[in-house]
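Q: Got a minute? One more chain.
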Amino acid sequence: MNDVIVYTHKDCFLKFNGNNHPERKERIETVNNSLKKINNVIFKESENTSLENIYLVHPEMYVKNLFNMIPNEGLKSVEKEPYADTYLCPNSRNAILKSVGAGINASDDLIKNKSKRFFCSIRPPGHHAEKIRANGFCFFNNIAITAKYLINKYSINKIGIIDFDVHHCNGTQDIFIDQENVFLGSIHQSPLFPGTGSKDEKGKNNIFNAPIKAGTESKEFIDIFNQTIIENLDKFKPEVILISAGFDAHKRDPLANINLESKDFFYLTKIITDLANIHCEGRIISFLEGGYDLIALEEAIQEHIKALMI
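A: Always. Here it is, folded:
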């Protein structure tokens, strides 16, 4: 049984997107309260990351311009109407830096303290953030920055990224499309925002997209996940696995139409942990991405963490 270290911070609760916005503080309140019910979960506070770590992925000018947009009061959209749903608020800077920092802290623990399993309970999420474009509630790509940090700081040669959020990880793909040492596998509903993620998007044969139709049920989802992503990741033989863990493929989620049950997130995660135990000494860092129904989040996150313990 592995302990799971959860990195989170109260600053992530302060990010505000307006009333009735699906990406709200109650998401990580629900996640953290649910995880407190599980033995072998260790909570740690994430720290602000340095801008230099963000620059590993996002150009300095993009980072500075985005932070300069943070308003003193109210909300500021980073997108133009009618697509404005990614907002900055006065508390955005620390929430963003703590969210990126969670992956950096987990990486240091992973290498220096030999801990194996981590979950970053953070917001804003990150997998839609491209090199120079914020979108889909995301500003900086938390998982991509962590991958780059592991490569640069600790000379990890092969990173495996798995994304089972119901929306395609357009940002993560944009960042790693031409990097053979990073494997990216994504299973996602299509058509659906952001409209990317076709099977033909292969990069340097390091991108494995599995678009699935609305209404997909559990068995078909898991079969496709195994055939398209896991079998290819097994051949890649990663040294560390990073997970973009979105829980919006749950049948209760209001933003998509895939029919996973809460227990399916145990099976999905166990498939990943089995592979990690074979290839990378069990080393996994998982990041909260989507998931917008609180009941589904409360149940599914417990299943995810329990499988991470195996």
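A: Residues 77 and 84 are 6 Å apart (CA to CA).
Q: Perfect, thanks.
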